[in-house]
Amino acid sequence: MQRINALLLLVCSLLILPENLSATTIRPFLNLGEMAKHSEAVVLVRAERNYTVEENGMTRFRTALRVLNTVSGPLQRDDQFILQNLHIRFDDIERTIWGDLELEAGKNYLLFLTINDYGEWKPMMLSYGALEENYKDGEHLLVPISLGAEVSILRTGDGRLAEPLQVYRTDEFIQHLRSVVDDRDAWDKARVATDHEVSSFSTNERAAPSHCTYLSGSPIARWNGFPTALPVYYHTGGDSGCSSAFARIQGAIGTMNGTYLGINLTDGGTHGFVPSCVGQGATDGEFTSYAASNLGSRSLTIQFDDPCNEITDLIGCNGTLGIGGLYWSSVTHTWDGVDWRTALYGYVVVNNGTGACQCVGASTDYDVMITHEMTHSLGINHIATSDGIANMNPSCCNVIQPLDIECLDYTYLAALPVELISFDGVQVEKAIQLNWATAQESDNEAFILERSSNGKDFEALTTVEGAGTTLTSQRYHHLDRDPQFGTNYYRLSQVDYDGSLTVVEYVAVDYFDGQKIQLSPNPYRGGLLNVDISLEKSADMDIQIFDIMGNSVFSNNYRLDRGQNSLPLNLDHLPEGTYILRTGQKNNHKTLRFVKIN
Question: Can you give the pLDDT at residue 161?
Fold first, then answer.
């Protein structure tokens, strides 16, 4: 048995040590067809070798690549070129970027590339969109790696929901992407995607987000067996400076359970452990013996007012507010394909004076402090302030943030009530056919299918009865007979028998009914922008133009005739930039992008 000493301190006066930590934020293209159109080269390559070079006192990491096939761009078959990583090292300092494109020698990859200011090839969006070629079930397949494997749904720069990356058939994917880049075809994932799940490929083993750190070394220590309860006990004497300490702890338990869906903390009530403090601290051998005998091998214990004076007293309200940690067993367990150490006893010790400083009126600082320390007892260490605001920043006091959720979701990923195989849609005459399939279901009462015109505001379409609990694959269908013109966004949610609801997946499907619109010239260099619109019947139509930030720069209404209509718009007054033209016909809309250049 090993122990984490009381070295993990929540402080108000923070000493920041120099280190270089980075995270990655992306805004993807609507789909891979759009990404290909904006790339300077799209190629299938083989990674020949990884190597380093010394330049200007720095070690740079590179990969030598050979082209196997070309979708677009100047690189041709058997051309060799170099990919420069963002990973660098000099002296004893090293920089790595989460999501950097790191390729394994001997493997094939489909890459979307551009050229930097130094004439070097680089990926369009780090590892997002990079696909590794695999062979499975007699097929050559392209599988998203790293960032692409982790991202299920994101919004584009103009607020639309991006299409999640899937597993694609290599030959069909390359051929289809060529026709999309050449404007001979529109992107259609249904023609190239498979039913394989990205997570079923070994190249996409789940990795901890880069900002997450842990109390133990490798393997990481975690509590096994959730949703089995982990009871939280607090000393019967309470906190001398905070009469509402018990209520605040109970509130923190509720907040953590409601935010971190993979855990199950429960209110265990009070405990009566009083350490002797003779040669031992409040969380040493006496503590573990008491916990084993009185609380069981699965408990989290809180003590107030630093009973053994192990923590330096606060000066004013500055200093160490509390400590938190856990004991773990030498026995490991395997969960989600990873080996972990098994946590046994968690503890929190609140310092003298913390209650008087943090528990003031309606302030929630005490609650946030307790949340932070109990999270340490779940095995989570600090998140550097350089990575962003988080409850697990070393300095007090921030409520739970997305950075915290990412770390807890990785460590205690909640099992979804349904395992989804696919969710897609396609226009069928004057309707959109929605199809989804599950591999297995648990307590699944029903699915709720919703639709949105903007990817944000959804309305219910239908409820479809689920299969309850089953290990047999199930297939479901719904025909949307009244889709909106343009892009329709669908959200699929699942309802348990206890009424709890989980969002399962999103899909975006384009619908066009007798209306065709083209813009020319695009790019637009001034003069007249021609908007050509073909209608099956006459109608009033709004034309609106927005800049990329969503500001309206043009708006007008036109009476259009059946057949072909041409609207010449003089937009000389617009500065250079990217714009979105939106047409409106009753409840039907379509958006097109154009670029103004001088």
Answer: 75
DSSP state, residue 415: P
User: How many residues appear in the chain?
Assistant: 598
How far apart are alpha carbons 300 and 345 in whole angstroms? Answer: 6
Report the alpha-carbon distance of residue 482 to residue 451 in Å, rounded.
Answer: 11
Each residue of 499-551: pLDDT tens digit?
878 777 777 776 766 667 888 888 888 889 999 887 766 777 888 888 766 67
Identify whether the C-beta of residue 562 lies closer than 8 Å to the C-beta of residue 538: yes
Rounded CA-CA distance 287/233 in Å is: 13
Q: What angle do CA 531, 532, 538 make, to 5 degrees?
A: 115
Largest pairwise CA distance in the chain? 93
How many Cα atoms occupy the beta-carbon half-sphere of 446 within 13 Å? 9
CA dihedral for 352, 357, 361, 364, sign (positive or negative): negative
Please say whether the dihedral angle defined by the alpha carbons of residues 234, 236, 238 and 244, taken in this order, is positive or negative: positive
For residues 425 and 71, the model is more confident at 71
**Which structure tokens are listed for 263?**
């855990």
Element housing 253 (H / E): helix 245-259
Q: What is the pLDDT of residues 138-176, one digit of tens each?
A: 788 999 986 666 655 556 656 677 788 899 999 999 999
Are the CB atoms for 274 and 282 separated by under 8 Å? no
Question: Is the confidence at residue 184, as pLDDT, over 80?
Answer: yes
Nearest alpha-carbon partner for 574 in 546, 532, 550: 546
Residue 30: CB atoms within 10 A of its CB come to: 19
3-state helix, strand, coil in the chain (%, to 5): 15, 45, 40
Burial of 547 (0-12, 13-18, 19+ CB in 10 A): middle
| 96 or 401, which is more confident | 401
User: Residue 297 CB: number of other CB atoms within 10 A?
Assistant: 13
DSSP of 323-362: EEEEEEEEEEEEETTEEEEEEEEEEEEEPTTHHHHH--TT
Rg (CA), the chain: 29
* Whether the predicted pLDDT of 439 surpasses 50: yes
Which tokens hold the place of 469? Answer: 């609990």
Q: At what angle do helices 365-376 and 245-259 cross, to 10 degrees?
A: 60
Q: What are phi and psi of 592, to 5 degrees?
A: -130, 150
CA dist 434 and 424 (Å) reads 6
pTM metric for this prediction: 0.43
The DSSP string of 51-113 is: EEEEETTEEEEEEEEEEEEEEESS--TT-EEEEEEEEEEETTEEE--TT-----TT-EEEEEE
The CA-to-CA distance between both ends of the chain, in Å, stands at 70
